[in-house]
């Protein structure tokens, strides 16, 4: 969940649940109430965009890949990060099915950068 201006979701469990119940879509509160926390509630104010251009590295360690937020972090306002990570996951599956895992890294990083390209331009040119 996110807030605007001085409004932010509380980090205590009771306040967090109450904040979720105040949202226009009741599904968030239902999902939170039916789930179990995997750890403490954390707040971030980091909303910048960062792209680590691993696709441009001259040397890459064998059998290593960078994926999702380790490649590119989007401002959560644009809700692109999970979609980009899912597309990269699908790309990784296709590459892994082809075989040679020692050479997978560089080819995957180039493909992952292609996936990042359009959402990056959208989120950084606003």
UniProtKB/TrEMBL annotation:
Name of this chain's protein: FAD-binding domain-containing protein
Organism, scientific name: Amycolatopsis alba DSM 44262
